[in-house]
Amino acid sequence: MLQKLQRRLANDQSGFTLIELLVVIIIIGILLAIAVPSYLGFKDRANVKASAANVRGAIPAVETYFADNDTYVGMDMAALQAIDPAISTLTISGLGVATYCVSTSVGGKVASKRNPGGAVLQDGAGAAAC
């Protein structure tokens, strides 16, 4: 009896079968099919929110420039950075006595604000680079 058990253990070929490996690969594929689109959607939403936050963060400096100069004419990145050094990568255009357009892009997602009373428009909601 003991010899029979020893022979059986000596001939044991342990390992995974081809079916087991295929099942594991299929499960990994299903998990990836669920996770990748979810991650990409999360990344796009984060970029939209980041670009809108950048524009909202620049508005106090824009309004401070207007309060100091009584016009938006002549406003540029250097003038805004003199007011708030944290401001970066904005597009500024459409400058007039009482009008402006400030926009930025993060990861290809654009946010913009036109004029003092306007809302911050996010990508997909009518936002366009100035």
Q: Helix/strand/pairing class, anyone?
A: alpha+beta
Number of strands: 4
Biggest pleated sheet: 4 strands, antiparallel
Percent of residues in helices comes to 40-55%
| Total number of domains | 1
State the end-to-end CA separation: 87 Å
> Percent of residues in beta strands?
5-15%
Which labels suit this protein?
130 residues; single chain; alpha+beta; four-stranded antiparallel beta sheet; rod-shaped
Description:
The chain has helices at residues 2-10, 18-69, 77-83; strands at residues 91-93, 101-106, 109-114, 120-122. The protein has one domain. A hairpin with a 5-residue loop joins strand 3 (109-114) and strand 4 (120-122). The protein is α+β, with helices and mostly antiparallel strands and 130 residues long. It has a 4-stranded antiparallel sheet with strand order 1-2-3-4, covered by helices on one side.
Topology:
Blueprint: H1 2-10, H2 18-69, H3 77-83, E1 91-93, E2 101-106, E3 109-114, E4 120-122
Helix pairs in contact: 2-3
How would you concisely characterize the structure shown here?
The protein is of the alpha+beta class and 130 residues long. It has helices at residues 2-10, 18-69, 77-83, and strands at 91-93, 101-106, 109-114, 120-122. It has one domain (17-122).
